[in-house]
Design brief:
Radius of gyration: 13 Å
Oligomer: single chain
Order of helices and strands: HEEHHEH
Structural class: alpha+beta
Distance between the termini: 18 Å
Helix content: 25-40%
Strand order of the largest sheet: 1-2-3
Shape: globular
Largest sheet: 3 strands, antiparallel
Length: 91
């Protein structure tokens, strides 16, 4: 999803995909991640209108990633150590 998309559009896409997170791109490159928790805490809880608020406002920017060749146990260890619920895999 592009960073200029609305939070509402992103939430609809997440719902239709049964996902609890979405990767956000800026000009085709990964620039963030947004989760259902981010939408609740950073958008809804602060009374921003999800229909007009860009997803870039609610996302976590510059997310840590792991490569496709990383071992799953290393990714899990990173998630536990850093208290992440989501860790994108990217090349």
């Amino acid at each position: 999803m592009e960073s200029s998309s609305s939070v509402s559009d992103c939430a609809r896409m997440m719902t239709s995909s049964r996902a609890d997170s979405a990767l956000i791109t800026c000009n085709g490159a990964l620039c963030g991640i947004i989760t259902d928790n981010d939408i609740c805490r950073r958008v809804i809880n602060q009374d921003f209108d999800p229909k007009t608020t860009p997803v870039a406002l609610g996302m976590t920017g510059k997310p840590m990633t792991v490569g496709p060749n990383h071992f799953a146990i290393d990714a899990l260890s990173t998630m536990v150590d850093k208290h992440f619920r989501h860790l994108p895999v990217a090349e």
